[in-house]
Design goal:
By secondary structure, this protein is of the alpha/beta class. It is built from 16 helices and 14 strands. Helix 3 crosses helix 13, helix 4 packs parallel to helix 13 and helix 14 packs parallel to helix 16. It is globular, with a radius of gyration of 22 Å. Bound molecules: pyridoxal-5'-phosphate. Pyridoxal-5'-phosphate binds next to helix 5.
Length: 395
Amino acid sequence: MSVLHTFMVENVARPASISTGAEPFQVDPGDGWRKARDAISIGATLPSTGSQGREMTTRRYDFRSDTVTRPDAGMRAAMAAAPVGDDVYGEDETVIALEARVAELTGKARGMFVPSGTQSNLIALMSHCGRGDEFIAGQDAHAYKYEAGGAAVLGSIQPQPIENAPDGSLPLDKIEGAIKPDDIHFARTRLLALENTIGGKVLPQSYVADAVALARRHGLGTHLDGARIVNAAVASNRSVKELAEGFDSVSVCLSKGLGAPVGSVLVGDADFIGKARRLRKMVGGGMRQAGIIAAAGLYALEHNVSRLADDHARARRLAEGLARHDRLNVDMPQTNIIFLNADESVAKEFADHMAAQGILVSGRYGQQRWVTHKDIGDEAIEAALDAADKFFASL
Ligand SMILES: Cc1ncc(COP(=O)(O)O)c(C=O)c1O
C-alpha cells in the first residue's frame, strides 16, 4: 500500500452511509456501491460519524491531482456517440481524428493514441533508444522517477539523471558533461528527455531552444514529456506548437488538466510513429474500439483548453491564501500545481485537520502538493482556505 493510500485511509472520515442529493451521473444505476463510491469523490454531502460518535457533514475536495476529474455529461455523450472500428487494424475513425488533431496541435506529422502517459513515454524512449543506449533526463522527471523504471526494465535503456535546477530545467553544462564520448566503456547517449510543465513550472522557452540545439549538436534525439504541455501553453501565452518545436517526439496527456478519463497521444514524424506503433503492440497498448475513449480526448481539446486558465487562477488564489499563514512556506504556482512545506511544529496536525475536513492533498506531513483542476471550483478553494484559517486560528 502506498504512503499516499495509507494516508488517505487513515485520515479521511469514512462514510457510514451515503446520500448524494445531487445528480452524480446516469450510468449503471443498479450498481449502488460503485455509484456511491464515485459520489464521495465528487464532493457529495456525506452523513458520517465523527470521532465522538456525533453525526457530522463532510464534503470532500480532491486536490491530489488533476487526474481525478470525472467526465461530464457532454463528454459522456460524445463518447457514447463516437464512431468506432478496430484501431489495431487502423479502422477507428475517432482515434484517427484524435491522432490527426494532436499532430496538428503540436506541429508534428503523425500521432499515436495510447492508454497512458507512462506508456507514451516508454514507447518514445524505446523508439529513440535501443538496448544499451542511454537517455538524459531530470532527477525529477516523470519518465525517470515515477514510471517504475520501465525504460530500464523493458527497454534495457540506461537512464542518466541530472539534478533539475529550481526552475525545472537541466543546466546546459550538466547536460553537455553527461553526454558520453564514443568509447567502448560507455553506454551510447542517444536522447535528451525534457518535461514541460515540470512540477507545475513552465520551462523558459529560450532555454528549451538552447537545450534542443545542444542535443542536436551532439547528435542526440529529443523527447518532450508534455503531459501538461497545454497548461504550459495557456500559462505562457504561446501555442502548443511553439512549445513542441524542435522536439522529435512529444507526449501529450488528455487525462490530466484536460479532463478526459484516459489516454495520451505520442507525436513525431512518420518514421518515428511507424516504429512506435510496433512497440505499442509489443507493450500491449494496441486497443480495439478505442474511439469511445478517443472521443473524450477530442471533446477535451474542444471544450477544456481555455478553462485551464481558471485552474491556474484558482491555484494562485489558493496559494496566496495559504501563504498568509507564516508556518506554511508556499511556492507560488505558475500553473495548476502548488507545493508547500508546513513547519514541522504543525505539519502533522495541519495535515490531519485538512484531511478531517475532507480536503485531500498529496504528500504526507511536511511537503504537500495541491493541484487544481476541472472539478475544483471556487467553492473548493474557499472551503480549503477556510479550513486552513480555522486551523491556524486555533493554535
Ligand atoms: C509529467 C507526467 N508525465 C507522465 C505521466 C504519466 O501519465 P499516466 O498517469 O497517464 O501514466 C504523469 C502522470 O501524472 C505526469 O505527471
